[in-house]
Specification:
- The protein has about 110 residues and is an alpha+beta fold.
- The protein is built from three helices and four strands, in the order ββββααα.
- The chain has a single domain, classed as CO dehydrogenase flavoprotein, C-terminal domain (Enolase-like, domain 1).
- Helix content is about 35%, strand content about 25%.
- A four-stranded antiparallel beta sheet has the order 1-2-3-4.
- The longest helix has 20 residues.
- The chain is elongated and about 45 Å long.
- The chain starts with a strand and ends with a helix.
């Protein structure tokens, strides 16, 4: 079935708007193979972005087998290429863009727990 998770980066935690939000939903079969994937980035463009190309990297194989960590990291890097943060917070654009890769990878790993 589907498993999902959401993470956000904000200055003051739960009471603040996210300067980065990552939502990941994965549909896994009983063997841990990814049947469908959804990755959405928020706060890094003028509207939420769906990372279609990154999603394709997850579909069709095991995300629990050896070597899947590299696959997850590659997926996170592809998703991060979409990010075009606007200069609307006190966090630097470079920092926010760098955090996209980390947040996507961590959110995928959290879904797989």
């Amino acid at each position: 079935g589907w498993k999902m998770n959401y993470r956000k980066l904000s200055r003051r935690g739960a009471i603040d708007f996210p300067v980065l939000g990552v939502a990941v939903a994965l549909r896994l079969d009983t063997s841990g193979n990814c049947m469908e994937a959804r990755i959405v980035l928020g706060g890094v463009a003028s509207c939420p972005l769906r990372a279609f190309e990154a999603e394709k990297l997850l579909v069709g194989g095991s995300l629990t087998a050896e070597g899947s960590l590299t696959r997850i990291e590659n997926t996170a890097q592809v998703a991060a290429k979409l990010a075009k943060p606007m200069d609307n917070t006190d966090m630097t654009l470079g920092f926010r863009k760098k955090m996209v890769t980390q947040f996507v990878a961590e959110t995928i790993k959290e879904v797989l727990k």
